[in-house]
Amino acid sequence: MRIALMLALLTLLGLGAARAQPAGRVLALAGDATLSRAGQQLPLRAGFIVESGDVLAVGERSALQVRFTDESVVALRANSEFRIEDYRFDKNAEQDRSVMGLLKGGMRTITGLIGKANQKNYMVRTATSTIGIRGTHFAVVSCNNDCRNTDGTPGPNGTFGGVTDGRITVSNSSGQHEFGQQDYFYVPSADATPVRLLAPPAILNDRSSGARGRTAAAAPASGSGGTAAGGETVAESNSGTRTSTSPQLTVQTAPATQLLSPLTTVAANEQPSVSSERNNNQITVVETRADHMNRIEATAANYSVLQLRSEAPEISGIRFTDAASLAAAFRSIGQPVGASAAAGAYWMYGPPEPGENSRLGSHHAWGDTPRIQLPGSGTAQYNYVGGTAPTDNYGRVGSFSGSNLLMDFGARQIKNASTMSMSFGTNALQNTATVYVIPANTTWQVGGGPHPLAGTACASGCSATSTTTGSINGRFVGAALQGYTAAITVGNSRLNTSQPNVAGNVAAFARQ
Question: Do 227 and 255 belong together in one domain?
């Protein structure tokens, strides 16, 4: 009897092992993380297979990424616990399921094939709500006496979230509530109605983990489990950048890198002081556009809310009080807007108006006018986080390669740490591809502009005897100077076998 019983148990165990299917694989890990399975706790490493029922715990100053078999990706921040409650993926839309639980901490996810095939079979549960999707990229933080505000004080309990792309539903006993692209919310309790937030909550930014900028071990390339090859940085950026369906809006994650040259921080006795001209209703705007003579202009100025309301009649009836709510006003009328929470900056593109002489359109970037004065000494680095794709007077949409900026507040001078460029392909109006280059270590002054970008050159597509120019008009944005926005223009007196060319865009940079 004992032998028969043991054989039966072994058979059951064998069948159970055979039924266990991989849910995914650890894509990359920085620091320490563990997995709890069937009463055992196992240390995680890159390439480790995870299964339905597993609980993943991420240590202090650590970060973890998991790629699931349906191609979804979950990134967990430090001090997070995450349960794979019910996951199955057999490419059967009716039976496939992805039910996850965020027990504590924070996560960011890009949903995969399960959410696309059958949205009702995907959900993420927290202590206060259940999140469903409409095909999306979103972030969630669950706080239970373990979250801190940026000043170190205890943060409120509940669930915080934000949508990068797509739409989500947030459900609890108060009902079901929907949030779209670049919406933010807070759910205080399981029976409370979610609070819609005007700006990204600071708790969504993982500033406490210390994992940012650490290179993670990455899983080897594999045809199963959706792993990726090469060294990847697990920790996501604080940039809060977002994607857009508009071809003129581009984003780039602010790289969490070492400083690119020996820089000092602002000295303690040179910390900015509160400006005597503090005004909560001032918004700084930079713009690139062509005038009626097809000449390109790069402008920058501070505007009051009343001035902006009069200049943008399409949103004159929509309430806005600051840069974030101005962006929300444009989005409410269907205007795509890009953004970086780290820089406190927003950007959008406006196509040419009917009858306009130029095909350039207009590029705009804005942020709250700083409430502190510029430091009188010290240096800092600002990382490129995104902006509009450049356009030119031939109607071409190009690409922009940005650079980190090195700020010398004592000399009132700015320098790009690496080459910046604008590249345009051919179209029906111009069969010559064009590339403009702004060399590394090009300098310009802080403050009123525009400033010429000495050394700007046409790397291809221009006549050897033609003249190339570049200029930049930038302003600091954000209450604490956390961002810098710039209108950038380039031009050439004569392309090969063609007429003069002008091009421009706007770019945003976040202080590291």
Answer: no
